[in-house]
């Protein structure tokens, strides 16, 4: 097994996690997949902000676990879920860090949704 690098956020690659500025709702058409007043917003380097939603605020019946995994040296290994309601965009549309690196523990067990596949509103 290959050792994977672990990196800490720094001035060259900043990462911040803060409570979302309002209630975050995730929809596919009229179907609400997630609705949370306890979401977190993760801002990483020059990437667009990502909302992470507590698992308890997500309709897990709409998600199917995927065998897909990716690795981020800053956050750790991500597990993915597919969302059949999305049709051809269903595969690996949602991700979660079940055991993130220590610096990212705040997002442990939270779920994130690809913004180009869902309607995500902050109100």
TrEMBL record:
It holds the Pfam family NTP_transf_9. Residues 24-115 form the DUF427 domain. This is DUF427 domain-containing protein. It comes from Neoroseomonas lacus.
């Amino acid at each position: 097994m290959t050792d994977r690098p672990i990196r800490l956020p720094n001035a060259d690659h900043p990462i911040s996690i803060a409570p979302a500025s309002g209630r975050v709702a995730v929809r596919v058409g009229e179907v609400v997949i997630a609705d949370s007043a306890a979401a977190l917003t993760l801002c990483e380097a020059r990437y667009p902000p990502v909302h992470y939603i507590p698992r308890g605020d997500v309709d897990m019946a709409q998600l199917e676990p995927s065998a897909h995994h990716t690795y981020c040296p800053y956050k750790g290994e991500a597990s993915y879920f597919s969302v059949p309601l999305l049709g051809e965009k269903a595969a690996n549309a949602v991700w979660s860090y079940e055991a993130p690196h220590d610096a990212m523990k705040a997002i442990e067990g939270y779920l994130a949704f690809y913004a180009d596949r869902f309607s995500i509103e902050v109100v």
